[in-house]
Structure formats: C-alpha cells, structure tokens
Amino acid sequence: MRALLALCLVLVSLPAFAQKRANDASFELRNDGQAPIVALFATPAGFANWGRSRLAGQPIAPGAGRMIRLPRDGNCIYDLQVVFAGGRRLTRRGTNLCHVTQLRAP
C-alpha cells in the first residue's frame, strides 16, 4: 500500500525544463487532491530526519500550487513527503528534482 501511495506523487516535466538550471532543485507543487496540503518535507535523499515543512505553515488549497525553492547547492536527489489535512501522506524517495519543474500531488 505504501508503494502505491508513493507512486501517486506524479512528476511532470514541462517545456520550461529547457530553461531550468542544471543544479536547480526548485519546483512547483500542485495540489490535485481534495484536501489542503498542510506540509511538504524535502530532504536530501537518505537523510533519516525529514526536518521542517517547506510550507512554513501556509497550506496549499486543492487546485492551487506554490513554488518550492530549494538550495542551489549541487544536490538534485531528494526524498519528498506531502502531508494532506486529515493525515494522508504521499512519499517519494530518490527524486531528481533538477529534471522536474512541477510535482502534482493527487
């Protein structure tokens, strides 16, 4: 079941990819779900601790999106966890965010 949920976090590569810098892990997070996204954790792949939410207490409403800025430190491979109101979580590990301009969370 957990693997199925992880597959639900869909990666979409848009034409803007050609304009994205090679070391830019920033992306737009779109909420395609029915509940607000209340937290997004993005940590370099393999870290045991998720750290703080990247949303800074500002949920993403259903149908809305937000740019998520990550450090340009040469790291592109991140583990991600999206948390919806009500507690549903989607997790995806080892995502190369330098090849992605948008993530859609269903």
Describe this structure in words.
This protein is mainly β. It has a single domain (2-105), classed as Sandwich (Immunoglobulin-like). The chain contains one helix and seven strands. It has a four-stranded mixed β-sheet, with no helix packed on it. The chain has a three-stranded antiparallel β-sheet with strand order 3-5-6. A hairpin with a 4-residue loop joins strand 5 and strand 6 (89-96). The chain starts with a helix and ends with a strand. Residues 3-8 and 11-19 have low confidence and may be disordered.
Short description:
The protein has 106 residues and is mostly beta strands.
Q: Topology of this protein?
A:
Blueprint: H1 2-7, E1 10-12, E2 27-31, E3 37-44, E4 65-68, E5 77-84, E6 89-96, E7 102-105
Parallel strand pairs: 2-7
Antiparallel strand pairs: 1-7, 2-4, 3-5, 5-6
